Amino acid sequence: MVLDEEAQARADVWKCAFGFIKSRVTRIAAELKIPDIVKNHGGPISVSDLSAAVDVPADELYRIMRFLIHHRIFKKAERPESKVSDDVVYYTHTPLSLLLTMDNVGPLMLLQGGSDRMSMGIMKVLKTRNRPDCKTPNGEDTWGDPGYATKEFTDSMACHARVATSAIIQNCPEAFRGIGTLVDVGGRHGMAIAMLIKAFPWIKGITFDLPEIVAKAPPVDGVQFVGGSMFETIPKADAIMLMVRVNDQYYLNTRDNYLCTS
Ligand SMILES: C[S@@+](CC[C@H](N)C(=O)[O-])C[C@H]1O[C@@H](n2cnc3c(N)ncnc32)[C@H](O)[C@@H]1O
What we know:
By secondary structure, the protein is α/β, with parallel strands linked by helices. It has 2 domains: 110 residues, Arc Repressor Mutant, subunit A (Orthogonal Bundle), CATH 1.10.10.10; 108 residues, Vaccinia Virus protein VP39 (Rossmann fold, 3-Layer(aba) Sandwich). It is 49% helix and 11% strand. Strand 4, helix 10 and strand 5 form a beta-alpha-beta unit. It is elongated. Bound molecules: S-adenosylmethionine. The site of S-adenosylmethionine (SAM) has 18 residues, from helix 9. S-adenosylmethionine (SAM) binds next to helix 9. Belongs to the class I-like SAM-binding methyltransferase superfamily. Cation-independent O-methyltransferase family. COMT subfamily.
């Protein structure tokens, strides 16, 4: 297999795993009747007008629309000259969004884009910013959700780390030159660091994660495990690694949901 085919296969496997996101987001848009509202507005609609029409906070809606624009379901538009407003973001329809209205194939999207139960959960998060299955009051973050403590979650992160880290080792070895100590923040059970110190044996590797996660991590040769929260302190090192963490920090801070950050 030539490298290009391998790279394509890696991209394709992500599409297989996360392909559902596009149909879920499109279903949510259809359920909120965004295609109908944009079509009937009589010109480009601002994010604040759309937010008022669908009763979803503008920042959440902005991210949904950004996703849909990326997939060419809507288009960004200039502010109409007749409008005097602070809004800088405006949307307009496309041939695809016109197909998604309720008098067109919108009802099919509602049927095929995921269950009503799933949609109710997402809708509640969008409108209230609270995940129904997760205690978020009193400052408890989404990582308190028992789903994140399961073996399935750990295994899925380990296999992701294995694939991503081998690509990093293969394609960016120069990035590790001169690094004495490397800390992987949110490194779970140490898969990435274990591979990196094996490939670059001069590096001293630290895996940093929440105390309850680190407490369950089986020992890995040459890897030091440190428990704590990155919002308080992280171990001193020459370099910090954050893999699948930047988005997470966003939803830790905003008490958000997977849909909008994915
Ligand atoms: C999505 S997983 C990513 C795991 C790994 N980096 C990878 O790419 O496969 C995010 C990790 O961040 C950890 N985490 C969550 N909040 C954290 C915090 N405040 N400080 C340190 N780690 C945290 C979680 O326990 C989890 O293991």
